[in-house]
Amino acid sequence: MNTLTLQRLLLRLRKQWLDWSGRSGQTYFFHRVTEYRDMWRAIAAASGGRFTELADDLWEVEVDSTSTRIHNHELEFDNPVVMSLAGNKAAVHRLLGAAGLAIPAYEVFLLTRLEPAYEFLRAHPRGCVVKPVKGYGGQGVTTHVQSPEELKRAALLASLYGYELMIEEQIPGESYRLLVLEGKVIHAVCRRGPRVRGDGQSSIRQLVEADNAARRGQQRPALDIDRDCLFTLGYQQLSPESVLPAGRECVVKSVNDPVRKLAEVRTVYTETVTDLVCASIRREAEQAARLVGSDFLGVDVITTDPTVPLASVHGVINEVNTTPALHHHYDASREPFPAVAIPTLNAILRRKASVAVRAH
């Protein structure tokens, strides 16, 4: 057994132990069964329908004699071929790139053949992202990779989820999820990074320290002047020692990483921004859905400014997600279900009813 194979085996065993023991710090879909069950029960009631529990994580909603079945976050939309295509990040990049849509620079490589990834890293020294070609929910993803040793560790992690791996240019900006239903964007959310506001005297480092004092009092995770912070400030032509004019705000971190790691960080969207996203980005998200062939797609965009076209600020479509999880699109602390769930359910039932009519 060679060293690389042994390292991979030990990493797999460690991850299995962390997941089994509940110490991974991750929230996966199987942790959200109760949330989704309650959500769909409330949606059925609001639609004047009937909710039936077929299994712990499998339910049926019937409205006006037409029914659909739901498996936790998964709905009856796309077929297995479309889902397989959307789950292949390299194939989607090739498809969208060939159509002229903005995608990150990338390279596909193997754990057993790392040289193409090393070469790509040398061409993008500010930072790269390493991920499995097939994967979801942040699994196997490492951000802000800057050295060959970090790349090797990231590749080992990504290889736990698939044979083919990818390295991408780290893109400046915040993450946006556009929800496309039957060819139209119906909702958008953003992972809003923490910000500080200048007073004309204090450096950004001092502003962060003051913010951290408030965070400690509120028992919230502190902000670090770490790699993500330096990268985020850098694309705004700032540094920790910069002094912001009074009233000016800047983003200090792009990755919501409360446990201070840059691997397998799951995106948590914090703000609805449907009205903020410009028409150009909406059109590109809708085109991406058409190219993939999906009727229900989450299109992930990274940009520094959602009010302008992606190309003007080096923004990209980062990836796409079939069976996009609806828990991203509402605030569970004050809403029984996301408002977008109603048109989503109506679309499914309309399609099912149409099929039933044709069958007769």
Distance between the termini: 61 Å
* Fold-level CATH name of the domain at 78-100 and 172-193 and 264-322: D-amino Acid Aminotransferase, Chain A, domain 1
CATH class of the domain at 78-100 and 172-193 and 264-322: Alpha Beta
Unreliable segments of 5+ consecutive residues: none
The residue fraction in helices comes out at 25-40%
* Class of secondary structure makeup: alpha+beta
- Helix-strand pattern: HHEEEHHEHEEHEEEEHHEEHEEH
Count of DSSP-assigned helices: 10
What's the name of the CATH homologous superfamily of the domain at 78-100 and 172-193 and 264-322?
A: ATP-grasp fold, B domain
What is the level-2 CATH architecture name of the domain at 78-100 and 172-193 and 264-322? 2-Layer Sandwich
Radius of gyration: 22 Å
Shape verdict? globular
Write down the overall mean pLDDT.
90
Summarize the structure.
The protein has 360 residues and is an alpha+beta fold. It is built from ten helices and 14 strands.
Describe how the helices and strands are arranged.
Elements (H helix, E strand, L loop, with lengths): L2 H19 L11 H14 L3 E6 L2 E6 L2 E6 L8 H7 L2 H10 L7 E5 L4 H9 L4 E5 L9 E4 L2 H12 L4 E6 L4 E8 L2 E8 L3 E3 L6 H14 L9 H8 L14 E3 L19 E2 L6 H14 L3 E8 L12 E7 L18 H19 L1
Antiparallel strand pairs: 1-2, 2-3, 4-7, 5-6, 5-7, 8-9, 8-13, 9-12, 10-11, 13-14
